[in-house]
Amino acid sequence: MSLNLNVNVRVSVSAHFLRKTRAVELLRGRFDFNAPRLRLNGITTAKSTDAKNKVLYNVVFDELPDTTFVLYGTSLKHEGPIVRQETIVNHSNTATTVSNTNTQKEDGNLEDAEPSDEDEEEEGITVCDEVWDTREVYVDARLVSGNDYRSMKSKFNLQNKATASPAEYFLYFLPMDHIREVVVPNINTHAHSVNNRWIILTFLEYLTWVAILMNMTVVIS
């Protein structure tokens, strides 16, 4: 086999290997599983093989410490040994924290647990090179429908144009779906990666921030 991961080592998994698992449901609102280069980190807790003699690992992710996922070894990437924190009390009653790494030695030929060509075909996943990522592409439909602002046939479809408020006019020209489905989830993903105490930002909170920002920066002379 091309992989020899030990148990109790740090690994990461690309999000597209988790799209058919409970991770998507459990982490809904915290991570956008369509975001490029999204990886979840965790620890291997057990090793086994399936009926086809393929290597399986039990993995516990940092974000879901109470849930164990069984994943093929070819979907895992080795990230290093576990770093444990130990507290030692010396004679002066001063607590000292010492970092210890896992003493297990890895195979010198250890390869990143990226999927092999054979496993890619079985899982039905497109194999990409290092430059291209497999992900969804978002396109503003107004630019490809023939009814965009550059077209002579473009239409202004705001309902109740005569009675609409300035806020309704402003929101009409914002890409609301893009903000709701892409911008806000990616803000939460990045913020939570640097601060695990981050409180999830909602769509309405984001729009409130936009309103406050406009009131603070727009000067009426």
From TrEMBL:
Keywords: Membrane, Transmembrane, Transmembrane helix
TM segment ranges: 198-220
Region (Disordered): 91-122
Record's compositionally biased regions (Acidic residues): 109-122
Amino acid composition bias (Low complexity), ranges on this chain: 91-103
UniProt name for this protein: Uncharacterized protein
Superkingdom of source: Eukaryota
Higher taxonomy: Eukaryota, Fungi, Fungi incertae sedis, Mucoromycota, Mucoromycotina
